[in-house]
Amino acid sequence: MGYQVKFSEKAEKSLTRIPQFARLKLERALKSFAEDIYGHHDVVRIKGSPKDTAGYRIRAGEYRAPFVIWHDVMIVFVIEVGKKENFEYR
Description:
Elements: E1 4-7, H1 9-17, H2 20-35, E2 43-45, E3 55-60, E4 63-70, E5 75-78, E6 82-83
Parallel strand pairs: 1-5
Antiparallel strand pairs: 2-3, 3-4, 4-5, 4-6
């Protein structure tokens, strides 16, 4: 049983603005990660994020999506979506 992928309002709005091929690639990457969060994916922990609520980012082409994992409710919560060159992790 895998995790569910949920998007913040900001992430949903950003996702609708990117090209369809990039959106589908990012959605597939997130779905694949959510099905097996311990498998090999292009996911890294965001430096400086607190250990108890660690932030991660997934890469799909030139787009990035930072997220947090809520293990108790089995949700991968996507915070934002953006291009690599104008993206800052907060």
